Amino acid sequence: MTEAPPKVLPRLDESLLTHLPPFAALSGRQIRDILDQATSRRYRAGVAVFEEGMPAERFYMLLDGYIRVNRMSATGDQVTLHYIPSGEMFGIARAFRLESYPATAMTAVDGIGLSWPMGFWDGFVAQYEGLGVETFRTVGHRLSEKNDRIIELTSQQVQQRVANALLRLINQTGRKVEGGIVIDFPITRRDISEMTATTLHTVSRLLSKWEKDGVLESVRRQIKVRDPHLLTELANPEA
DNA sequence: ACATTAATTATGT
DNA sequence: ACATAATTAATGT
């Protein structure tokens, strides 16, 4: 479900973008121009920013929150592909000459995003040095991560895949707290099972076991990794 | 070494 | 109360 009314926030400060890699190389004036053309919008947790197959009308910069990217499988199940942290661009279909969004973008938590009409994309990358370069960087990074996961899926057992998925989550979206690192947004056993090509039951069993072993703590969509090193060992097929 | 099925128990609105 | 999450055991491939 897509949310209807775009609420424009009162004031868009340039400091919103200056420290973000895609805009870091730009002058204050350039950032001002970009911001003046942007629409800012708050999103509640659990809503779709855009959906798979919809005409790709806008592209986005996530200022706060996390985006969960899903795609529909052939059997009709939603599959979680990955999470996007704040500070990254998403929905940049135009960069790949796509007419429609290849996946659904759901908010994992309350968040704030900027967006621009997709028609601005080509002009932006032509006009603003570094935007295209940084986009290549993030896309390349995501691709190499995908490659890693293909290797995992074809060569590793379930425990290792789940352990690797958790490691990625805490590395990319982890927040340090007393006694460990928590995944910064609510995540279910089902979400993890979708990312690792297994069932929620197997994930549940693994997490229960690891909780007993002191690797992590987990209550209700919240996971705290207490011992990342142990998890790293579990992720490596040693024997 | 896993999935599936089903029953049961939390937990959040 | 009702829906969603999570656990656990039993059974199957």
Describe this structure in words.
The chain is an alpha+beta fold and 239 residues long. The protein folds into two domains: 15-150, Jelly Rolls; 157-235, Jelly Rolls (Sandwich), CATH 2.60.120. 38% of the residues lie in helices and 25% in strands. The chain has helices at residues 15-18, 28-36, 121-127, 131-155, 158-173, 189-196, 200-212, 228-235; strands spanning 39-43, 48-50, 58-64, 66-72, 78-85, 89-90, 104-107, 111-117, 174-177, 180-183, 216-219, 222-225. A hairpin with a 2-residue loop joins strand 9 (174-177) and strand 10. Helix 5 (158-173) packs across helix 8 (228-235) and helix 6 crosses helix 7. The longest helix has 25 residues, at 131-155. The radius of gyration is 19 Å and the shape is globular. It binds a DNA duplex (13 and 13 nucleotides) through helix 7.
Which features would summarize this protein structure in a list?
4-stranded antiparallel sheet; 8 helices; DNA-binding; Jelly Rolls; alpha+beta; 25% strand; 239 residues
